[in-house]
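Example: Leucine-rich repeat-containing N-terminal plant-type domain-containing protein.
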Amino acid sequence: MFLLQFSFFADAMLDPVDFLSLQAIRKSFHDLPGSNFFHSWDFTFDPCGFTSDPCGFAGVYCDGDKNFISGEIPASLGEVRRLRTLDLSYNQLTRTISPSIESLPELSNLILCHNHLTESIPPFLSQSLTRIDLKRNSLTGSNSPASLPPSLRYLSLAWKQLTGPVDRVLLRLNQLNYLSFV
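Written out as structure tokens, the predicted fold is:
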């Protein structure tokens, strides 16, 4: 019996950094009224010292020994009004960039590269936003000068299917010192 338990745990074992990251996410967010989304996120240890398999947590996708967050970017992130850096890169996020993120007043770094985000880049309201990394997504739509704040210093939009004149966007971004469309 012990060998069976141990082999199951070995198959579900994640990198310790990924495991700690999941714990931090769980401590930071609460279910919306009427929702049981985080009910499956159980980090309590049984008498043998094992915890629930994080690969079975709602919204978590595992591949090999890595943990990935899947689904849409939670709208509840917009409630973290003092959030300065949001890095959800290298996950399985889909759909659009949540409207709640575009209105975060103190956001300075937005890193959403290597996901499956679609549609267009929303207009960001933060005037302290200095870094946007959206490479390797499936964003489409038109480049709008108003969507990117003039405070940007780093912009990576590689592998995008965006259209429109780049010159109007670049004229507005006079503090930019890194730009990648490739």
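Confidence is low (pLDDT under 50) at residues 1-12.
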